Amino acid sequence: MASVELPARGRLERELDGIVEDNRFTIAVVFPAVGAVTLLASAEALLPGPLNFNPYLLLFGVAVMRLPLVAGLAPLLTRKAAAGLLVLCLYTYAIEFVGVHTGYPYGSFGYGVDLGPMLGGAVPAALPLFFIPLVVNAYLLCLLLSGRVARSAAIRVPAVALTVVGMDLVLDPAAVSVGFWAYDGGGAYYGVPWLNYLGWTLSATVAVTLLDAAFDRKEILQRLENCRFMLDDLVSFVLLWGAVNAYFGNWIPAALAVGYGYGLWRTDRFDFPER
Questions:
Q1: What residues contact residue 167 under an 8 Å CB cut-off, 6+ apart?
Q2: For labelling alongside 195, which of 16, 21, 234, 269 has CA 20 to 30 A away?
Q3: Is pLDDT of 196 > 90?
């Protein structure tokens, strides 16, 4: 029987799926493990000067860990979804720009590590690479775990927004501990002020609403059913930031990371089978 040639986009999506499938363990486990060691070694000034918090190595590692999410979403990227993601990117830059210059809604803070090129000298150009995956991973996890309850937007959006805030309860203390950024005057939660989480509640709610409007929930659920690696980026998140928090004795964030790991285990899709 003659094979049917896929359109160019279909071929690229299939090739990307294959790359991720063939390297799941390396992407989702080895990269975050190496990343955690590298970040901790940089924080302790154990690496040669140019390698300490090297922004390009950092961005490369983050980009690789994002591959499962990119491959998982690629077949769902309609014009509407692409427009929604563009708006979400612009929103991410805008609220960060306001935050850096006014101290609201996250609290007054400054970057302590070079995160690559900056827009306007104030906001990392790669910011969407850090923020948007948190929102998408939280959205996917909630869809998988909540089942029929997630059919209601009135429940779905707040639940995902709170899940995003929970992820920042893991991320921010670790980032402060390694020196990525610091809040003026510190904060009660491992150097992070509570105002930051009020700000994250706002920004997460807006971001989740945009994401929910951009993508077709039924298509996402179908893709999740057929794509076992779609949440591997969240595995990387748990391993990387859980390890960093444990190293610095940030036990509440470390325990929260374990909680997200348990949520992932409940999805029953992380056996990393050999192909």
A1: 134, 137, 138, 237, 260
A2: 234
A3: yes
Q: Where are the domains of the chain?
A: 8-266
Quick check: helix, strand or coil at residue 7?
A: coil
The SS3 of residue 260 is: helix
Taking 60 as the threshold, does the pLDDT of residue 25 lie above it? yes
* Crossing angle of helices 217-226 and 127-146, rounded to 10°: 80
Instruction: Point out the least confidently predicted range of 3-7, 48-52, 255-259.
Output: 3-7
Give the model confidence (pLDDT) of 86-107 as tens digits.
Answer: 999 999 999 999 999 999 999 9
Please list, residue by residue across 117-155, b when 16 or more beta carbons sit within 10 angstroms of its beta carbon and e when fewer do. Answer: eeeeeebbebbbbbbbbbbbbbbbbbbbeeeeebeeeee
Instruction: Tell the residue number behind the tokens 């029987």, with chain if given.
Output: 1
In this predicted structure, the answer to whether residue 3 has a pLDDT above a threshold of 50 is no
